[in-house]
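Side project, low priority. Logging it here so it doesn't get lost.
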Amino acid sequence: MSKALGYKAFGDASVQEFFDRPDPVPGPAEVLVRVEAAGVNPLDHKLRAGHVSAMNGHLPFPQVLGMEAAGTVLAVGEDVTGLAVGDRVTGFALTGAGTYAETTLLLGTSTARIPDALPATWAATIPVAGTTALDVLDQLGLLAGASLLVNGIGGGVGIALAQLARDRGLVVTGTAGTAKRDLVEATGATFVDYTEGDVAQRLRAQAPDGFDAVVDNVGGDSLREIAPLGRTVISVGDPSVTEVGGVAVERRVDRAGLERVAELMVAGKLDPHITGTYSLTRANEALALVESLHARGKVVIDMGL
């Protein structure tokens, strides 16, 4: 049996509860992993709320929170290649098994071995934040010297974007709340505080000709406000971006992307800036912080605490 945090119905944080479940058995395309760390993401509470029913509306309850994890392989499905029992790995829980748990199932093709030098807490930030940033930049294909505006730069994806864009020679500007200024500026990006009046007007004053590309991590009215500033607009999580002439990021969720991000971390080119580390027993607090929109950088659940 292993402990997990999940929910037995869709709703707000009040539906979350801890429960014990048998260690899941991997199917032919899956690996069973002892979770050492799990990343916490906005997608987690959106799935719990039932806002992304295409991903989990068909799954039975109780459902376990979490989409990304790092740990050690305990068992391997018969169709999985390139992974073995004992491997340290990171991956996506696209199986529906969740990651706020002591053990989980990861899809073999969306799981990669990680270098010994990479801490599990860092590796747990790769599947969602790390590879999303990589996919965005690959999709944009901007040349060195191009200007990039990141709307909502202070979270996990935004901070990863700022560093990877800087490594490609892009000129990065980002919007975030006041408390995230130091974190954003540490990446080399120009910080614009969205709490200080008309943010679109101040961005236009800074870039009269607009930006070569805008990446949106916020959605809604904020997306619609800043979309006219970019010659290309791409959204990480709001499908309504098509209504303003933009596109959604094309996610690859494959082993190659995970390996690329792990290499960037080991090379010192990407720091997930983990600003909150919580034990599994405090996972409710970790998710509440992310759901509040006040989380800086990345929040992680560390099973060793």
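Brief comment: DSSP finds ten helices and 16 strands in the chain.
Revisit when time allows.
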